[in-house]
Structures are given as structure tokens and as C-alpha cells.
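Incident log, support desk, overnight shift.

02:14 A customer reports that sequence design results differ from what the structure should imply. Their input is reproduced verbatim below. On-call engineer (initials T.W.) acknowledged and began investigating.
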């Protein structure tokens, strides 16, 4: 299970910069081309030193692109992901209809050990199990629900 909101770094694992980076991911989601069959999501990968390594958003280059895979695809060769965090406006998918590997698997395969997201994936297209899949593979998952409203905004057309 992902950890829940917290105000500052401590036992919860939330760092002071988490809200900043997650808000940026939510802002990137607004740039997604609209879709009636997929969520609009933004993602940012930040190194252990606090510098942005890559960013992406859904359908950025291909109608099937998810934000996490777009950001991972922008990482430079040999990018140091030790201690890095991926921030996503929506829980990374744990099941995917458009490609063979879900985003949670891609995150694990890349070696990321920490994921922060704003909004649990609603069971609109597939059941949201990404946070549990990440946690099962040793990735620390943190849900900052205080930004869930911002993550839902570019998806209002899907939610009715």
C-alpha cells in the first residue's frame, strides 16, 4: 500500500520538495492531447541531487504513450537513477491494454526505487493496481492526495 499524505520528511518518507515536483507533473498532464479512452497524465523523474532528469506526458509522441514511459524514454544514456524519484499525476498503471508492459513494470525495470503520485487510478479502463505492484517490487510508493484535484482536472471529461 502507498503511504499517505504528510507535511514534512519523516517516518512517512515525504520530502519537502515532493509537492513541488508532483505539482509540475500535474501541470504537464494539461498538455496531453485529449482522449476519450485514456487518462491525461504527467511525469517527472528527479535525481537524488534534486535535479530534473526527464519529464513526459501521455500521448506526447504517440497516441499510446503513457507519461511514465515518455519520461523514461527521455533519460540520457547512463542516467544515474540511484536515489531518483518518479512523480506522476496518476498512479502508474499496473495493467495496460495498449502495450505489453505496464508503467509499474517499466519503473521497476529502470531501477527507480521511489514513486510519488497524486491520484489513485479509477477503475474506468483497468483496475488500478500499480502502487501495489511497485511496492511488491520494493519501490517506495507515496500518495499525496492533496494534489488529486489538480490531477483530476485534465481528466474531467472522462469522469462525467
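02:41 Re-run completed on a clean worker. Output:
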Amino acid at each position: 500500500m502507498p503511504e499517505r499524505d504528510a507535511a514534512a520528511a519523516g517516518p512517512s518518507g515525504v520530502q519537502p520538495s515532493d509537492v513541488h515536483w508532483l505539482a509540475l507533473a500535474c501541470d504537464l498532464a494539461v498538455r496531453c492531447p485529449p482522449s476519450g479512452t485514456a487518462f491525461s497524465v504527467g511525469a517527472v523523474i528527479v535525481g537524488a541531487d534534486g535535479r530534473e532528469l526527464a519529464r513526459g506526458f501521455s500521448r506526447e509522441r504517440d497516441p499510446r504513450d503513457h507519461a511514465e514511459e515518455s519520461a523514461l524514454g527521455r533519460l540520457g544514456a547512463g542516467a544515474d537513477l540511484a536515489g531518483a524519484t518518479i512523480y506522476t499525476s496518476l498512479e502508474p498503471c499496473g495493467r495496460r491494454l495498449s502495450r505489453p508492459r505496464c508503467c509499474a513494470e517499466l519503473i521497476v525495470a529502470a531501477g527507480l526505487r521511489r514513486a510519488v503520485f497524486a491520484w489513485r487510478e479509477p477503475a474506468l479502463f483497468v483496475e488500478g493496481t500499480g502502487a501495489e505492484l511497485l511496492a511488491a517490487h520494493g519501490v517506495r510508493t507515496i500518495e499525496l492526495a492533496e494534489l488529486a484535484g489538480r490531477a483530476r482536472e485534465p481528466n474531467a471529461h472522462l469522469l462525467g
